[in-house]
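#struct-pred
JK: can someone run the complex with adenosine monophosphate? inputs below
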Amino acid sequence: MPLSASNPSNPSNAPAQQWRFDSRYLTLPEAFYSRIDPVPVREPKLLAFNEPLAAQLGLGFLLNDPEAVNYFSGNAVPVGATAFAQAYAGHQFGGFSMLGDGRAVVLGEHLTPDGTRVDLQLKGSGPTPYSRRGDGRAALGPMLREYLVSEAMHSLGIPTTRSLAVVSTGEPVFRQTAQPGAVLTRVASSHLRVGTFQYAAAKGDTELLQALLDYAIDRHYPAVADADNPAQALLSKVVDVQASLVVQWMRVGFIHGVMNTDNMTISGETIDYGPCAFLNAYDRETVFSSIDHQGRYAFGNQPGMAQWNLLRLAEALLPLLDADEDKAIEMAKEAVSQFAAIYTERFEQMMLNKLGLESKRDEQDETLISECLDCLTEAKLDYTNAFRDLALPTLPDKPAYHTPKFQAWHASWQARLASQGWSEHAVSALMNRTNPAYIARNHLVEAALLAAESDGDLDPFKNLLAVLSNPYEPQPGREHYADPGEYNPGYMTFCGT
Ligand code: AMP
Ligand code: MG
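RT: done, structure tokens with the ligand placed:
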């Protein structure tokens, strides 16, 4: 693999930071991608640049590179990059389609200074062979939303793709109305999706599937290569990482909004921030996406939908599990059936930590958790703020905390805490590192995007981003960022298409 350096503004005696592309994806059969460059834009302007992430990637030199805006808009392709759009398929709201990157290109796999391999992708970079009737472009609001929410998720400690830059294009995109266009630079541990395997399976070519399996194992789970049955071992890994991921979403009240199989990664990172949002009042049935009419991807349905998606992955892998189809189906079922037990165990552990408890003692802990969630639902308590309140030395004087039901639950929780025997300080420390004080509040996200879109004012975006970069620490003077805003059951988010 040739290492490519391109940094005219970097004096020759400076540390050798550079682009390091090594796109092994391009060694897969050509059915998996189309070689295509990003389409240049009229007037690129760098609106957001993630300096800490750039440093981590070994791309800190871009701060001083006048070409940076051109790389992040697609107007220039970095030396060594060979851009391509990926092919994939997906079940979208249950219906299967052949898809692909219709408005994105991967510039390449970049190696960071510590040898980590990441995809650098431009999203909103123009039409590709997979665009169907779409324009290949993205609007500024949704790209800033992805930047904000993905970085918030990262700061919450949740696996996610990252956002390196947002560039406005100086070109309008036409949705319901004309909106400013933008390109997001996304960093992912890969863009392999459940839908990538579905694509290979739908082609009916076992060699394609095998090549993809080998690539995915090599990239994400190299130890699995030595398993007796690598396909089943990979499936089990994905079941494991996705169970953990959804538990993390449930911890902070994150609703993905479009858990289609093309939006579920093999790596276990959260991907594709479209109509996503965070819960205010705790309610399992909460749906924010304007396109989710049936509530398929409601907050409380997320574990079930993850398992449904994993069954689609298992189906795609059948030909590699065993030559005997019945046997393959048995193996697939067995691997996916692990999801429920893994999920439940980690969910209970997570909920107990939210309550300052170290680990499960007996079945009464299950009751403690479910009654806690019942209380929250009934009182329409803000999910985030309620757990921070519970960690205080005395509960704030809110009517919702004085109902007989809540008081009864609170007493049983206190008794359980007493039997754990920890100091108050140790309990609140565990709670406050499990329960964020700050999440991306829907009204604040909307206000920040609106200011950027209509007035070109990026201050609210930057201020919100700064608060969300430190979500577990109280931030004196910024308490209003924890305000749920008006309880608005009708709040809707729209995807960026
Ligand atoms: P998403 O809802 O962003 O996960 O996208 C679902 C599919 O639609 C993917 O194949 C996208 O590449 C494609 N798509 C979304 N928006 C556009 C667009 N503006 N132009 C072309 N393809 C798009
Ligand atoms: Mg998608």
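RT: quick notes.
Residues 325-354 form the longest helix (30 residues).
The two ends are 36 Å apart (CA to CA).
JK: thanks, will look after standup
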